[in-house]
Every structure is written in structure tokens, then in C-alpha cells.
Amino acid sequence: MTSIIARAAAKVRDGERLTPAESVEMYLHAPLPLLGELADVVRERKHPRRVATYIIDRNVNYTNVCVARCSFCAFYRPVGSSDGYVLGFDEIFRKIDETIELGGGQLLLQGGHNPDLPLEWYEDLFRAVKARYPSFRLHALSPPEIIHLTRMSRLSIAGVIERLIASGLDSIPGGGAEILVDRVRKALNCYNKATSDEWLEVMRQAHRAGLRTTATMMYGTVDTPDERIEHMLRLRALQDEVGGFTAFIAWSYQPEHTELGGVQATGLEYLRTLATARLVLDNFPNLQASWVTQGGKVGQLSLAYGANDMGSVMIEENVVRAAGAAYCMDEVEIVRNIEDAGFTARRRNMHYEILGEPIFRQKEVRRMLNLAVAREEGDGSVPAELANYPARSASEKRRRALQ
Amino acid sequence: MEREVIAGVTRADAERLLETKDLIAVGVQADDRRRQLRGDNVTFLRVLDVPAEGPVPAVAPDTGEIRILGLAPDSESALARIREVAARAGGVPVSAGALHEISGAFAKRMKAAGAALVAEAAVDRRLDRSAIDDVRAAGLDVARWVVQSYTPLATLDLFEHVRALGPLRSFAPLPRAIDPVSPTTGYEDVKVVAVARLFLPEVASISVDWSLYGPKLAQVALTFGADDLDGVPAESGGASLLGPRRATIEEVRRNIRAASRTPVMRDARFEAIPEP
Known about the structure:
By secondary structure, chain A is of the alpha/beta class. Chain A has 15 helices and eleven strands. Chain A has a four-stranded mixed sheet with strand order 9-1-10-11. In chain A, strands 5-6-7-8 form a four-stranded parallel sheet, covered by helices on one side.
């Protein structure tokens, strides 16, 4: 063990902050058992009663039409594609009904950068959801989607966020961060959807507006270990500044059916990355396990490597599935995994407030052995309310002219 | 060189290790023991699964075992299938059947038909010593010693049974029958692997099935005492209940190297297959 690692380990045990150089050294060279042990020390310090949480919500992708064309994404369809879809408000209401039936209270609502969905579409959707389901939470629109809306509406970031909050937005998911290093973003063709600074600025403005958000990291494409640490350090600095991040979620790039291709980072690399994040992100209260990309087994092992949260029961997932990962765990399964690892399982909301014991122990809830999808295969229906908004893309203008 | 004799942990210690939630401590102990016993090599076996009936697939290069799956309708059909597969095996060891189904007399006929190994022996079938001796006397070895079903309370009983069988070349302690509604958890799996390594020093290799458990869990198991990956498909692709399997030889090697181990391709008899 190098002297840097020994010193860094001592600092972690004493509750001191790691320097950038120490963070890189730990990530690259510390033995994995040491990283896990230290990550567990930090987790225990922040969550001393050995409680592991999870949320029941649903990942709904309102559209797969996207102009960003990131090379790592298998989910998007170009404008005008016959596979492109936009969910109707009624479809989204049905998904909310199912979510409530399963004990959920929130949608994680994200989608492509669709030029035919203006800011008003989102405002109308959010208002309609809140009118029907007043206490239901909308954890919606990752920073690149907000940036897309600033470009469409010609409003500032703060202006878009203000309007979305006024129509019902409750919090912002940390998607689209990938790696917050512009060299990587340019290589992945996601620099134009949001630069590193733009992603961080959306979160800064959201936190200043009183919203809580999460932060994510998708690693394993063209990024180097140093760039992953740089990503964490940029998040740590913003958290020092505004303090609105509730949790950090890392996952490995899923390569199937993507333009970029390549291979997926291994399970041990995931555990190493997670444990290192727990040490570096000393001002983040919560670390989620990404069982949806790592599978239930490695997802559960995450609880020994710094995670204190099993993420979402999810109910529906489309983006990661498109790239080859098809894992599913319902509430029963998540709770079984938490308890088997020696933790007490508790439901939470997006703010990590404890909501109570598992729902299935309070009422009969049907088992859910497969994740739902946005739409059934072959459903090419176009929601009627789209006609309320001006078409911007040539293909949508053509479609409407032919009607 | 004579191998250093290393005692296994006691049953009481093993029970405590299976109960503990301090996963990393268990892993460190098992990993130390693995290093003492096996060094840093990790063997892996590419298996071509062949159904009991139907066309025989082409044998890919570097295949380490051709495993005939399932039951033929009668013993004569089973022997005919072994002959058919062995004729196309190109020297790759052919395995078939399960030890508890095979008598000494039938083992001799399997050998004569071209089988090199019995495909598997499930230790939870309470195999007795004479059945093993009969098969070995017929000139067949056992390709893999496995557990069929997970029974948490009986794990150590099974391991004691394995001890009683005498030194084995390998043992795969994770169950082959997985309940898709309630599969074993990651904690359970890696602890069982670790305790197998610590409790059974007389077993040379602790093995995990790559196809059944998936690359991620199989790789993590390499840091909890496992040193052999069985069931790597000889052909890429395929799927299982636990998700998509993208098993290429490069992926296997990459996972082993990422666990700081040295990959060694082997055949069903644990003989190294030289790198091309």
C-alpha cells in the first residue's frame, strides 16, 4: 500500500476530505476490500442505524424522439422516425394510476429532446397531473432537457425552471451528466445537448430556486479514471456551493445497440467506483445502488461498498433496457435483498424522508416480475393534444398536413 | 512439489461466516486462502452444450468440453448420441449424464461409446463413495461437482459431504436451480463461495458458472475465493433468467484480468489449452 493510500485511508477514518490527488490514487490503486471497508465507515457515519432505503416510483420516458443523437444512447429515435413516439396525457395518467396502485407516489419523467414539444406542453402536462393527483410528485426533466427548453423558448435557465415549478415540477433528476468533462462530452456527441458547465448551471439554478436534485455519472465509455474523479470533484464543489443534491447515482455504460458500441465495465469496476464516490463525495448524504444496470446481486453487494439506498422499484424502464440491461426487482425483491444484507428496509420519497415500512407488508400488492415499457410494440398512435402546439419539425408538419 | 497442507475452518467458524453481515471481512479471508492454495491463476472452461437429440452443432476452436444435455429416451439412444457427438468432437472431451443416474456397467458402455466424463455430480443427491469409484473404475471422471438446489440450513452439511468424498479437482457451490421469483441474493452467493473456499481446502478449485450467474457476479466471486469459471459458452450470445449474456472469450479474459488475476483456458480435465 502506498503512503498516499495509507494517509488517505487515515483521513477518511478521521472524517477529513480527500484531495484530488488522493482521490485518484485511491480509485486507481487502493485494494478493493480497503475501499469497501472505508466506504462502509462513511456510510455508517452518515446512516448509523443501518437503514437502507428505496423509493417506489416509475421511470416514464414521455418521448423517444431526440435531436441530441448521443452516440452512447440506444433509446432515442431521430425526428420523423416511424419508431418515434410521444405519450399522451391519458397514457401518462394511466401509468400514474398503476404507480399509485403499487404504492408509488412519484414519476421520474424524462425524455428525448423533441422539437415538437414546446415548454407549454410540459407546463400543461404538469398542471394536468397536479390537478388530478395533487400530492403526486414530479421528479422530472434532467438538465439537458432544461437546456433544450431554454433554446426552444429563448428563456433563461432560471426562467424555464421558474415556469416549470409554477406548473408543478417538484425536483430534477440528475440524468444527462454522463461525465462532466467536455473532452468526453465532445467524444460522445453530447457536448451540444449540454456542456459540463451548462449541466452544473441548471443544477445551481434549481437548487437556488429551492428544488432538490440528484446527480449521476455514467462511466465506461471513453472516459479515463482521472476524468471520473474530476466529475465527482465538480459535483462536490457545487454541493459545497449550493447543497441541493440529495444523492449520487453511478452506473456503467450499457453498450448494446448503441452507435458507440464497445464493452461494459465489469462488476468489480462498479463496486470500486461506488466505494470511491462514497469517499470523494463527502458532502453527499446518499448513494444509490444501480441494480438496474448491475443486476440485483451486484446491486445488493453495493450496500457493502458504500451505498445506503437501493434506488427505485422503478415499475417501468426503457432507456437502459434499450441498451441491453433487462433486470427487474419489485418491492418484495428489493426489501428481501436489503434485509438479507443486514439492513432495515424503509420506503422514502425523493427528499429521502422516510415514508414507512414496505407497502406489501401493509396491504396486498401484486408481484411485478417484469418492468413495464413506455408503449407496447407496434403502438404508433399520436396523442390528440399534440395538435394544440405548433409543429416545428418538417416531419411533424408533413404528418399534420396529411391528416 | 507437495502442496502445503492447509486446514479448513471449523464448522462453527463456517456457520459464523455464513451468518455475518461483514461481507468484506469474509471476502478477505477467502481471498487470502485462495491465494495460498491456487495463486493468481483463474481457469475458465468453454463448453459446447449439445441437446440429447437433433443436429450436432459445429465445434468452435478452443472448446474445452462438449456436454450432452438432457435425457435420451432410453440407454441405447443415449449411447448412440454419445457415439455421434464423439465422432464429431475432434478430440474435445465429451461429457454426458449425471452421476446419480449412472451405474458402473453403464459407465463402461459410455466410455466405450466415446465419453470422457460424466457431465455432473450433484452433491445434494447424497452420492455414495461406491458410485464414484464405479465410474472412475470405468475410466470416466466427473466434469463438475455441483449443488442442484439452494438449502441455506444445509449448506454446511453439503460441504461436509463434499469433504467426505475426498479430494476433488473442483466444486461449484452455488445452486444450479434458480428460482426466478426469489433468486439467491448476492450476499448469499459470495458468502457461500467464500465459505466453500475456507471450509474445503481439499477441493482444488472453487468454481462458478459464468452463464448461470452472469459475468458480474462471477467476477466478484473471484475476489471471494473462486478461481475457476465453468460454463463459458463456446459460442457467443445466449440468454438466461438473470439477464442477457454476452459471453465472448475476450469478455471472460477481461473480467478475470480486471480482478487482478491471470486467465488460463482449460479443458474438462483441467488441462490448460494453450493460447493461440
